[in-house]
Amino acid sequence: MTPFTITRLHTQFGIIKASGQWHTNSTTDTQFNQLEQMSTDGWIALDINHPANSQFIAAIQPEVHQHLLSLPPA
């Protein structure tokens, strides 16, 4: 897996920043180490292991993957 850091990404579910690892050939195998969402009061850290956040994480994975594919190779 390849590590990544995204400092700011506008998704259809809000603005996020994230870090983790990903596979270039799988849109569902993105693993997050840290995930934050912009709120009206600033960045809010999300508990990536909490079941209540799993639907949000699954929803943003394709957009995160597409963003990572659009970046030039490191």
Give an overview in words.
It is a single chain. The chain has one helix spanning 54-70; strands at 2-11, 14-22, 31-39, 42-45. It has 74 residues and is α+β, with helices and mostly antiparallel strands. The protein has a 4-stranded antiparallel β-sheet with strand order 1-2-3-4, covered by helices on one side. Strand 3 and strand 4 form a beta hairpin. The relative contact order is 0.23.
Brief descriptors of the model:
74 residues, four-stranded antiparallel sheet, 43% strand, alpha+beta
Number of domains: 1
Q: Treating each run of at least 4 consecutive H or I residues as one helix, how many helices? A: 1
Instruction: Kindly report the spatial arrangement of strands forming the biggest sheet.
Output: 1-2-3-4
* Amino- and carboxy-terminal Cα gap: 14 Å
Give, in order, the helices and strands.
EEEEH
